[in-house]
Amino acid sequence: MSAPQPSAKAFVPFVSVETMMRLVHHIGIETMLVELAGAIEADFRRWDVFDKTPRIASHSNDGVIELMPTSDGEIYAFKYVNGHPKNMAQGLQTVTAFGLLAQVSTGYPLLLTEMTLLTALRTAATSAMAARHLAPKGVTTMAMIGNGAQAEFQALAMKALLGIKTVRLYDIDPQATEKTRRNLTGSGLELITCNTAQAAIEGAGIITTCTADKQYATILTDNMVGAGVHINAIGGDCPGKTELHKDILLRADTFVEYSPQTRIEGEIQQMAEDYPVTELWQVVSGATAGRRDQNQITLFDSVGFAIEDFSALRYVHQKLSGTGLSQDLDIIADPDDPRDLFGMLQRAK
Ligand SMILES: NC(=O)c1ccc[n+]([C@@H]2O[C@H](COP(=O)([O-])OP(=O)(O)OC[C@H]3O[C@@H](n4cnc5c(N)ncnc54)[C@H](O)[C@@H]3O)[C@@H](O)[C@H]2O)c1
């Protein structure tokens, strides 16, 4: 006897990497970055309603695998994400991810999707959203140190949300810089290849560090950082993995996503427990000032927080509606009688 066909209740919309790419092009990448930043900012404004916990990390000598859950009471989301800086040498991505959105009232999934692309998009959208509150007014030049998988997304988000016109590129691997330059040619950005990090930050009002190395690295030292700049530090996001010399943090006003997680994972892991930080939602909600004056060094110590993934997942779920782009995956068991799970199995013999 053939297995009974599952009913509609069994199916969960699934977004493959190919589908995500089609969705991004359907919306337009810069439009999507702007809309994602809006979605994330809106959720940061209702910070209090979310369940919050530092992400659950499983560390090894090679990297980390993390689970990032949150809920607003109606919708639940989690992301599975890894960070393996040595992967690239084997032709694998440093960061890959997938995630799920579910209805709190039934626990039934609403969406299962790739999140490697979506993570790059949401990270860049969050960076630009933070920079809109923290970067110097009228900034037009950004240094982009670390020209790997995240780099183009960061550059385009800063263009779309802040009007960045010039990006000064540096990577220890010139091939990475060449790849980024090639990918961004025709984007409307002026691209300048630099031979050192020091050269890259010349005249830049925003310095983005986005390198991957599973160790304490010093991409920027204190003497490199002039008054008034905004540092968008993306790559220090794990215990034992930082990018900035701690003296920079002594001069900077530091903004974080969720401090209990950032104190474990961010640049501030180098600092004492009472090192002062401001959570970005406080700035977004207007409770605290972002940039106060022209000489202030602002630092967004980004590690990536579950609420950003929640916002991104919900955004994708809304955008998919009516496009016919997702596939249906039969991943929820759906016996005719909910208590007859075993009977459903038997009938499938
Ligand atoms: N904060 C967040 O939300 C978030 C999200 C995604 C990724 N990340 C982190 O961002 C970093 C970059 O991710 P990716 O996917 O682009 O990684 P990637 O491996 O694709 O690229 C990293 C690049 O950094 C370069 N690099 C390494 N050391 C350097 C140095 N000393 N100076 C200049 N360049 C150097 C490498 O050559 C490589 O091109 C990773 O550390 C990742 O964990 C953070």
UniProtKB/TrEMBL annotation:
<dbReference type="Pfam" id="PF02423">
    <property type="entry name" value="OCD_Mu_crystall"/>
</dbReference>
<keyword id="KW-0614">Plasmid</keyword>
<dbReference type="InterPro" id="IPR036291">
    <property type="entry name" value="NAD(P)-bd_dom_sf"/>
</dbReference>
<keyword id="KW-0520">NAD</keyword>
<protein>
    <submittedName>
        <fullName>Ornithine cyclodeaminase</fullName>
    </submittedName>
</protein>
<dbReference type="InterPro" id="IPR023401">
    <property type="entry name" value="ODC_N"/>
</dbReference>
<dbReference type="InterPro" id="IPR003462">
    <property type="entry name" value="ODC_Mu_crystall"/>
</dbReference>
<comment type="similarity">
    <text>Belongs to the ornithine cyclodeaminase/mu-crystallin family.</text>
</comment>
